[in-house]
Amino acid sequence: MREIVIAGNWKMNTNPWEGAMLAREIAGLMTGGNGLSQVTVVVCPPATHLVMVVTTLSGSSVMVGAQNVHWDEKGAFTGEISADWVHFLGARWTIIGHSERRRWFGETDATVNGRLKRAIASGLRPIVCVGETLEEREAGKTFEVIERQIRVGLKEVALTGRGGIVIAYEPVWAIGTGRNATPAQAQEAHSFIRDLLGRLYHPDLAEATVIQYGGSVTAENAPALMPCPDVDGALVGGASLKLDQFMAIIHAAAAAKAAAR
Ligand code: PGA
Prior knowledge:
By secondary structure, the protein is of the alpha/beta class. It has a single domain (4-260), classed as Aldolase class I (TIM Barrel). It is built from 11 helices and 8 strands. An 8-stranded parallel barrel has the order 1-2-3-4-5-6-7-8, surrounded by 5 helices. The structure holds 2-phosphoglycolic acid. 2-phosphoglycolic acid is lined by residues 9, 170, 175-176, 214-217, 235-239.
């Protein structure tokens, strides 16, 4: 069985105290059984909160990630975040290439590739985001865009399967819009990505790679999205800030995994 990963992308939300409290509440509810231990849970707070959230979660199964890391170890890169130091603080994950980074901060497939290599070298487990815009989907370019993002983004990067790189399929038109991909649309894109990874690497490695869906995932739509055979969890934005929503999504993922047994 593939691993299931539910990650909360808090973006630039919560103040540090609110972030620590939310983390503590999630950790408290993760001890309840119900197959929850079968789900890998990660929270990605703003970089300013990493110390507090890592400290709050010490001893819990909930892991911590950054939202971005730089491609160099250190140096004259004002405002950037060193992967080594994220690791030093005790965070073990990072998001890379989120569409908001691509849209607002000039992230390209090449910078994604650099950041990804550095994240891996620093011992962080990356969640690499890919996905098409609405115009690209309507122009019939969805697969072409995803293929380019993966070919360039993962260039010269080894895929290691279980415990390695996570891919998040996040159609840009579904992020923060309340308009999620249908289970059929998600499954189609995920199976395309798995097939592509199989061709670029090896089918066994593709089979073991976690592919999350992201884009307006909620407690309401997670029960339909999580059972899709190639959907291995979710990257959750808005709903990850609401304790009951986030926990319901984790429960939906655990239930889908149990049912697939
Ligand atoms: P959303 O964000 O769940 O608020 O749509 C998802 C993401 O940006 O990762």
